[in-house]
Amino acid sequence: MHLRDSESDAQFRSEVREWLRGAVASLPEPPATEDWPGRRTFDAHWQGLLFEAGYAGINWPSEHGGRGATPTEHLIFLEESAAAKAPDVGIGFVGQMHAGPTIIAEGTEAQKSHHLRGILTGDHAWCQGFSEPGSGSDLASLRTRAFRDGDDYVISGQKIWTSHAMAADYCEMLVRTDPNELKHKGISWLIMPMNLPGIDVRPLVTVHGSTEFAELFLDEVRVPVSNLIGEENDGWRVANVTLSFERGTGFVGELLDTTSVFRDLIALARSTKRNGATVWDVDGIRHEFGILGADLDALWAFTKRNVSQGARGGMVMGSGSGFKVAFATTQHRLGDLAIRVLDRASLSLDDVDGKPTGELVHSKLHAFAISLGGGTTQIQQNIIAERVLGLPRER
Amino acid sequence: MDLQPTDDQLALIEMVTGFASDRFPIDVVRSFGEPNGFDRDRWTELAALGTFGLALSEGEGGVGLDFIDAVLVHEALGSALVPGPLLAATLSAGLVDGVLDGSVLPAIVDIPHDGPIIVEHFRSSDVLLMVDDDGVRVAPSAHAVGIDVVHSTDPTSPVSILESVPAGDLIGGPELAVAWRQRGSLLASAQLSGNSTGSTNLAVAYAKEREQFGRPIGSFQGLKHLLADSWIRTEIARSSVWAAGVMIDESDVGSVDRAVSGARLTAARAATENAKTCVQVHGGMGFTWEVDAHLFLKRAWVLETVFGSVDEAAEIVARLYAAD
Fold this sequence. Notes:
The complex is a heterodimer.
Chain A: H1 7-25, H2 36-53, H3 71-83, H4 93-106, H5 109-121, E1 126-129, E2 145-149, E3 152-159, E4 170-176, E5 187-193, E6 199-204, E7 213-224, E8 228-229, H6 235-241, H7 252-271, E9 273-274, E10 277-278, H8 283-311, H9 319-342, H10 357-372, H11 377-388
Parallel strand pairs in A: 1-4
Antiparallel strand pairs in A: 2-3, 3-7, 4-5, 5-8, 6-7, 9-10
Helix pairs in contact in A: 1-3, 3-7, 4-5, 7-8, 7-9, 7-10, 8-9, 9-10, 9-11
Chain B: H1 7-23, H2 26-31, H3 40-48, H4 67-79, H5 86-92, E1 106-110, E2 117-120, E3 127-132, E4 135-140, E5 145-148, E6 159-164, E7 169-172, H6 174-209, E8 211-212, E9 215-216, H7 221-249, H8 256-281, H9 293-303, H10 310-323
Parallel strand pairs in B: 1-3
Antiparallel strand pairs in B: 2-6, 3-4, 4-7, 5-6, 8-9
């Protein structure tokens, strides 16, 4: 067992660091959070730089235009990107992390040649239409209907939690193509261009007050049958194949952000005067910082274990679920500590006193994105109990 | 970077786990707590595996592996509640004659600045190892005056209260004291991490077999979530324990002190919380002496005080983060 970089990893790290230094310095000012066209342009520009330098699709196989990097190299790239304060994947998230890998695994040659390059260059942005108002944890109960009509599917229904829908060109959709089949059977995976008639995108305001998500209202949207990925009614399996792309790096971006927030909070506690001393001088506050620091270090070690296992070609059973639950707990606890450090400065979502207080209140609210998104903490606990510990199913 | 055990390490863990279940089943563990219950023959068998000299060079009579290998072995021993002065023996093997082969039994104490001097396994020991800021000293246990506690909280970790400690012979200066505290702390945390696995396995097995309302209690979400949380705490704990173990071998990759203190925090939490969950899952039977759940909890309470408390650990992590 080792924590040191191997010789080739150290070489890769120094190349990446060198390239990032120049690339990040060349970037314009980032746009405002709610400036969707501006974000689209900014994120696409960064993705274009990555593409030219050969870092786009870093974990994608090289025969599909990716770099084919090892999981360890992927982790190094993300670490160095954070250290260089490079932009994160942004609007490219769904395309690069989910839709692209799905098309690689299950798409036809025509679908691959039509879509993969646009994702890698940043020219195409994707969103995800999986969840529905009535189908959250029980996703397989989804009801958005797709009728076959000649060479088209005609889609009607409603989707929710569609990230970046305001800026996306394509949507990866799960639709019910066979209403007579229950649950997992009868679902299909479709590529839906976002410029088609019948798509109504309505922003969904989150607890932060931002419009990161949208609802999609779909009224007889005609999608060509050639946009079907995999077989009709086999969409549930198709939606799960991307999991095999996961090599332990899935949460690294979030973990880097959280570590950075943690360090900002330490700096704030040390520089904030309270009752004749600093907030850092309060024993109870410092104790909590110690516990959270240990938890963050442990989450990093857990990540490195998972990446190590990924490099051997598998995942530790249940590690994705376990990481997510532990990470959500740490995020919530960090948010609680932020509020204690900020005290009444936490009443403002905008920065107070020229200090980054707003970011810290945001991070408290953002913790819910981890404990709710992508399968709630309670669903993850069920998965661990049944699949790892072998406890009997309730039903 | 590779933070998962290699095939050789997995084989080592399997070997120790197999030995523990064969030679230290729970009734044997319990018997170590009885008056004169320390079974020196079994201790010698444990020593003969190379347990205490894993990270010692072959020239010194050891196995010549890394410190992380000793960490993995202590995790396996902790999972089976193997009793005795495991970390005293691991730290002193090669420095104190007879410890390596199990013929000399050590007891160890980090001399407190104030308060009572309480030592595990002193009553069975041949030599007493004393750690303070100035270094490490050793003396025959007979030279120390102590009273054996009649009812030790952990029945399988019998303790004595020393009235005074002998001067003893210096076997190493301040650097050795620092190294022993760091390594001793991590070995205790490794046992805590293992302990959390052992209690979770016990609880899961019971949840599958015990039926109420006409079905196994493990089918109820209330219990599933408790047990899933136990599993997660273990994975978090072993992640930080392993990382700290590797950092002791590769001290240039980060702050070893922060890693060791962090490992104490996550491992102590995993062991105490998982053992409490184990008691809870057993229902009323968990409150009895007969069910083994309490043995995990009580051992965890002992280990979380060894070479540093959780409060000291939190303070160290906070200060080192702030200084970084």
